[in-house]
Amino acid sequence: MSLGQVDSAPSNTHQAALRSEVNADSVLVFQGSETLFDLPNLWLRDNCPCDDCRVPQTQEKRFILSDVAADLAPESVSIDLDALTVTWPDKHCSQYPLATITELFQSNSQPLQSWPEGFVPQAYSWDEFLGDSRVTAEAIETFLRYGVILLSQAPVKEESLELLAPVLGPIRELLFDRIHNVSMEGHVYNIAHTSLGLPPHNDFASYSFPPSVQALHMLQNETPGGESIVVDGWAVLEQLRADRPDYFKSLCEFAVPFREFDEANETYAVEPMVRCDPQGHLVSFRFSNQLMQMMNPMQPGIKTFYQAYHELCLRITDRDSPARSTFKLQGGQVLLVAAHRVLHARESFQPIGKRHLQDAYFELDNVANKLVLLRRLNGLNNG
């Protein structure tokens, strides 16, 4: 039984005597008659924690697996209540704390946190978000849990999104503009620069790796209509997976072309709409009706894909969906969305009065890293 096949961690390695045994290509660890671990020889050698095999200052691996033979086997092994010790043919000795191995059975994936009924994104003060570390930590935790928050009392000055970098990390620059202006004046290169309604989508589906965080900063909103909408795309997908696993499979496998361009720029990607990790957990959702391009109608799988896509569109645009929230984004508010999960949209508006929004892009890895640093600063657990 390999590590990847174990369903749960050993309950208590101190209840009975432990023993180890060298197998053909691995080391087995038993507690009584129960197999606790089946540790491949190459895995063991690759993960030696000693200072010769790792850089002590950084804990990065220094040892590389090509330095040993593919059929490497231990010369001897021993075990006690705390550690497994392996001696290799070259007399190198590796010691593995059992607690460290046990921790590897714990999944890092968090279950999807569904939005409660009547969900509206939690609002936090702009100044406190930037200046109070505990408020920042709470806001980021909420953001990572639900994929969306609001910041209120933000400056109504252009380029204010630059001020978010100390919390969200550096702005991810994309083509067209570093900070994008969304209004009916100036550079018009997509539907967002009109008064038409925008269906739920995430931006830059035309990039091979679209930005994973988007900040939408409303500077002025004096037009009738134009309510903002957010949709929990992952919740929609999970329900679709439960109802129609064949449709979900098609969305994971069928590659779709997306294009965004203007006179000077061209972005084009051909990717499936849904991506999961090897365990089947959702990783990213790519959905943009306006950027999706015409496809070869004779390619294999396209009929099933279009049935799946039709059903997905019905669910994404369902105004009564519990995964949908509608509200008016006022001047001085910033909508922050985890863009690989949450889709954003806009109702149509009457083109009278001023409506000016700016948006910029960040990366979720940097936001999550900020939370780790804040927890250390505030003396909080990482759990």
Description:
Helix 4 packs across helix 9 and helix 7 packs across helix 8 (302-316). Strand 13 and strand 14 form a beta hairpin. The protein has helices spanning 41-46, 98-103, 126-131, 133-146, 165-168, 233-243, 245-253, 302-316, 364-377, and strands at 18-22, 26-31, 34-40, 76-79, 83-87, 93-97, 123-125, 148-152, 180-182, 198-201, 213-221, 228-232, 255-261, 266-272, 274-276, 282-285, 324-327, 333-338, 342-346, 355-362. It has 383 residues and is an alpha+beta fold. It is built from nine helices and 20 strands. Residues 1-14 have low confidence and may be disordered. Helix content is 22%, strand content 27%. It folds into two domains: 3-103, NE0471 N-terminal domain-like (2-Layer Sandwich), CATH 3.30.2020.30; 123-377, Clavaminate synthase-like (Double-stranded beta-helix, 4-Layer Sandwich), CATH 3.60.130.10. The strands form six sheets. Strands 7-8-18-11-20-9 form a six-stranded mixed β-sheet.
Defining key terms:
disordered N terminus, alpha+beta, 2 domains, single chain, six-stranded mixed β-sheet, NE0471 N-terminal domain-like, 20 strands, 9 helices, 27% strand, four-stranded antiparallel β-sheet, Double-stranded beta-helix, 383 residues
Amount of beta strand: 25-35%
Biggest sheet architecture: 6 strands, mixed
Query: Cα-atom Rg, whole angstroms?
Result: 26 Å
* End-to-end distance: 29 Å
**What is the CATH class name of the largest domain?**
Alpha Beta
Helix and strand composition category: alpha+beta
Mean pLDDT score? 91
SSE pattern: EEEHEEEHEHHEHEEEEHHEEEEHEEEEH
The beta-strand count equals 20
Q: What is the number of independent domains?
A: 2
Name of the CATH homologous superfamily of the largest domain = Clavaminate synthase-like
The CATH architecture of the largest domain can be named as 4-Layer Sandwich
